[in-house]
Amino acid sequence: MMSLLIPIAACLSISAPQSASELIFEAVPKHNHGSSIVETATGDLIACWFHGAGERNSDDVVIQGARKRKGAEKWSQPFLMADSQDLPDCNPVLFIDPRGTLWLFWIAVQNNEWGGSLLKYRTATEYAADGPPAWNWQDVIHCRPLNFEAKALAAIAEAEIKFADLLAGNERYKGMIAELKEKTKDKLTTRLGWMTRLHPIMTSENRMMLGLYTDVFSCSLAAFTEDWGKTWSFSEPIISYNIGNIQPAFVKKSNGNIVAMMRDNGMPKRIRRSESADGGVTWGNIENMEIPNPGSSVDAISLSSGNWVLVCNDTANGRHLLTAYLSDDEGATWKFKRPLENFQPDAGSGAYPCVIQAADETIHCTYSFVRKDVEGSCIKHAWFNEDWIKQGTAQ
Fold it and tell me: Class of 18-394 per CATH?
């Protein structure tokens, strides 16, 4: 757990190591997961998450939100942000674009299977008042990944060569490969089921880049709009023979390249990484970072200092440890780390972080929070600065 707790007002000055944390709301029996956070131009914070009896199999799941006024001691009561009636709404993402428009991206799960998820968004220009934003536009994003069939089939073919010994005589695995090939050739299967998880980035003044992923093919994708959502284009899939890289966090390097850091959805239980030299349209090899990953979401951002922050569950198994890492060389190395949560295995968890940097340079992170000795779940909010991370363990 964080060792230094201070009032939020003190975080307005970041000349010394500082950190604090709080619950956005007290734990409730229903499932609360997949949070996102933004800071408004006035310094208020808005967070959201999905809330319901479960995830894709529970039709009561909705998107909830809350607001914390600048200088306030606590968050507002939760309010409704989105509800596709009688369908599970999951994986919300908040973003405020350079014009000051607030975006909410999320998925409505059509058939209680992740592969049936429909990607939606809504926007608001008025969101300063108490309660939910005044949404003024809503639409669906229809996904058509670039060169998906060719890239996916090439990855599958390479996997058949790399894992020939494993496949030999194993009819179950052979059947899974054959089924995946058929799904790759089906247009609806490759265009539906793309899901959000983390905030988009701006790669130019008007080009927004949103990270997507699919559990059907266990790979990632980038979606782009240059006209504020009127039209969308898509990258080639971020996919390899060692399939299992999802929920991409995008960070732009000083040379313009885009780095994707992704959750491991298979083996070897490491954060996955890929880099694009053309603004995110095509991607290089997928590599395994040294930082462990238990199959849990990661988030990363570039700070105003030029340093990068990565927040992740850095264990091979379990989400009981949640750690903030700091890099001063654009992710080549991660020299410092410090835990945000450090439970004993099975005693609690902090997971699925969302990270932003506020105008005053404070780093804010929201994440799903569960304690074994407290019934239910909630969303936790932590805030800290670079110097606080630097006081942690040097790598």
Answer: mainly beta
Number of H helices, E strands in the chain: 5, 25
Count of CB atoms situated within 10 Å of the CB of 131: 12
Residues 6+ apart with CB under 8 A from 21: 2, 5, 340, 380, 381, 382, 383
Cβ atoms < 10 Å from Cβ of 302: 20
Burial class of residue 37 (count of CB atoms within 10 Å of its CB; 0-12, 13-18, 19+): buried
Place of tokens 């006209």: 227
Position 242 scores a pLDDT of: 85
Q: Minimal CA–CA distance to 277: which of 255, 299, 307, 262? A: 255
Q: How far apart are CA 370 and CA 277, in angstroms?
A: 39
Cα–Cα dist 103/22, whole Å? 25
What parts of the chain have a pLDDT lower than 50? 1-14
DSSP notation for 201-249: EESSSS-EEEEEEETTTTEEEEEEESSTTSS-EE---B--SS--EEEEE
Q: For strand 79-82 and strand 62-68, is the pairing parallel, antiparallel, or unpaired?
A: antiparallel
Tokens matching residue 93: 């993402």
**What distances in angstroms separate CA 110 from CA 61, 192, 221, one per listed residue?**
12, 10, 21
Domain locations along the chain: 18-394
* DSSP label at residue 28: B
Burial of 293 (0-12, 13-18, 19+ CB in 10 A): buried
Among the listed residues 99, 91, 133, 137, the one whose alpha carbon sits nearest the alpha carbon of residue 230: 137
CB 13 within 8 A of CB 7: no
pTM for the model: 0.94
Return the pLDDT at 7.
40
**Are 386 and 303 within 8 A, CB to CB?**
yes
Element at 382 (helix H, strand E): strand 378-384
Residues 6 or more apart whose Cβ sits within 8 Å of residue 119: 105, 107, 140, 141, 143, 194, 195, 196, 212
